[in-house]
Specification:
Protein name: Linalool dehydratase/isomerase domain-containing protein
Strand order of the largest sheet: 13-14-21-16-17-18
Region (Disordered): 1-23
Organism: Panacagrimonas perspica
Pfam families: Ldi (PF18566)
Number of helices: 16
Domain Linalool dehydratase/isomerase: 60-376
Shape: globular
Helix content: 25-40%
CATH topology of the domain at 423-524: Immunoglobulin-like
């Protein structure tokens, strides 16, 4: 990767104040791990009200924002524990390529939505889900591998054909295979943006949404970290100019939702919907924070509902008729409000929303994961918001709990340098422990990490730490709960008490008896 070796002159490396993950934050990571680790075609706890993968609770959104939540957690909270996150990312990317995630595009590509109904009957259905339009999928299939490459210094998804989607139907058509890689996908999206004057790439045909182009901007920025390019700057500058024609904010004071490009018609947030404002605010805060802070707080105040004991919720939009049928959809207004509050540093709102979820949304622990079961009831008899969509439980509440104030903005603007990947890193962790702290302090030459035993798993704790040997750091000592338990140098392990330590190239492999919690400190002289 083309990251700088050290921070620019006058720029200190960003460090979130050190703190250990709490039980609910660990449970949030485990919930994402649980849904991502399911077999192909299994979507337990993920199914929402729309079975056609058309609404904003679709599988692709759940997995993409789960990945972004993990990326921010790794970057801000556990920077020296890639082994916690890498296997989960691989499962998320695997499941993103399952046809159950993207086959909706064949039907959606024909038009017929509320704002492009005039195209119905004029467009032929498409099967390739990333070749043209459908930024609501292609952006995320690009973003997750880019994040993987950047976070773990592993370019496996940059190899030709590494991202392969295929279907082999039993009762219709023929086998179809669509092969891409992260950079090929990025190029496809970029050139569509250029052709559209940087307004963005369409989701449904001729419908360019502000929200759905934000993940592509983030993906370009990550690609810039990897390749040393400046696409994100080019695209954001062009985006701001292009949206001036239609207005980024509508007459009602909400973010413009989208533009129907073939008839040049802007679509305002007329109902209005909080999810649309909050979602855009959270993502755009990465690169345009001043604009977000200027407009979003007033939008939010129109929806907030104060509750008992400092809880708060948000007013839900009213279902409306589509073709004579009253229709609702998973839009996750509550979840996106929590994500935006976390990113914008609105601690009062965030605490109120999380407190509401923990009091009124039936928090449940399952296989180590913190889960809020789906509930289609909008309000109870007391007017309390009870609605829980799967994306709120699986992705958005974890995102809000795990992020830090300005987390996405910092991630966008203060990338790791090459020096990060040379630090001691927990690269493999047995599945019977949770890592609640993992941070290297270069000034003290100290790696601190804390392991908590999982109550639902047995066996010894095993971890691998890279960049320990052969790096010229010299003598080291390992402490557990303040007591020296091992020592060595750049070449060997000299002594180990009460635990097993072996050297394999630059890696320290450590096996220890499982305890409720153990705080480790690996210090170089």
């Amino acid at each position: 990767m083309n990251l700088p070796l050290t921070p620019p002159s006058g720029s200190a490396r960003h460090r979130t104040p050190a703190s250990k993950l709490d039980a609910k934050q660990v449970g949030s990571i485990r919930q994402i791990e649980n849904i991502a680790g399911q077999l192909d075609g299994e979507w337990t706890m993920m199914g929402g009200r729309c079975g056609l993968q058309e609404d904003f609770g679709a599988f692709r959104y759940q997995m993409a924002y789960a990945g972004l939540a993990l990326a921010l957690t790794h970057f801000h909270r556990l920077p020296n524990a890639p082994g916690v996150f890498k296997p989960i990312f691989e499962n998320l990317i695997r499941k993103m390529m399952h046809p159950g995630v993207w086959m909706y595009w064949h039907f959606v590509s024909q038009g017929g939505a509320l704002t492009n109904g005039h195209l119905w009957g004029k467009l032929k259905g498409k099967w390739d889900p990333v070749k043209e339009d459908n930024i609501m999928f292609s952006a995320y299939l690009t973003l997750l591998p880019m994040l993987y490459n950047y976070l773990f210094d592993d370019d496996r998804y940059a190899q030709p054909g590494a991202l392969k989607m295929s279907i082999n139907p039993l009762t219709f058509g023929d086998r179809m295979v669509f092969e891409y890689d992260q950079h090929k996908l990025s190029d496809i999206i970029y050139w569509q943006m250029v052709q559209n004057g940087y307004l963005g790439v369409a989701c449904e045909p001729s419908c360019v949404f502000q929200i759905c182009n934000q993940p592509s901007i983030l993906s370009f920025r990550i690609e810039d970290f990897i390749k040393g390019t400046s696409r994100a700057q080019e695209v954001t500058e062009g985006y701001v100019k292009a949206w001036k024609e239609f207005g980024s904010v509508d007459a009602g004071g909400h973010f413009m939702v989208h533009v129907v490009t073939d008839i040049k018609m802007p679509i305002p947030n007329a109902l209005p919907w909080l999810w649309s404002d909050a979602w855009l605010a959270a993502l755009m805060h990465s690169w345009n924070p001043e604009f977000v802070h200027e407009h979003y707080p007033a939008m939010l105040q129109k929806f907030l509902i104060p509750g008992p004991d400092d809880t708060c919720a948000v007013r839900l939009w009213e279902p409306f008729e589509i073709r004579g049928v009253t229709t609702g959809a998973d839009t996750a207004d509550f979840g996106w409000a929590a994500v935006a509050a976390a990113e914008l540093g609105d601690d009062k709102t965030l605490r109120g929303l999380l407190a509401h979820a923990d009091r009124f949304m039936n928090p449940t622990w399952r296989d180590g994961g913190l889960h809020y079961p789906r509930n289609d009831v909008r309000y109870d008899e007391n007017g309390i918001v009870r609605l829980v969509e799967p994306i709120t439980s699986n992705t958005l509440l974890p995102f809000a709990r795990l992020n830090v104030p300005n987390g996405l903005n910092t991630f966008y603007n203060q990338p790791w340098t090459r020096a990060h990947y040379a630090e001691p890193l927990l690269t493999e962790i047995s599945n019977n422990v949770d890592v609640v702290e993992a941070r290297f302090d270069p000034s003290a030459s100290e790696l601190r990490f804390t392991l908590n035993a999982r109550q639902d798993r047995s066996g010894d704790a095993a971890i691998s730490i890279s960049n320990v040997f052969e790096k010229g750091r010299g003598s080291w000592k390992l402490y557990r709960d303040g007591v020296e338990t091992a020592s060595g140098d750049d070449e060997r392990v000299s002594r180990a008490a009460d635990l097993k330590i072996e050297r394999h190239a630059d890696v320290m492999e450590l096996v220890a008896a499982r305890e409720a919690a153990s705080a480790y400190s690996l210090v170089w002289a």
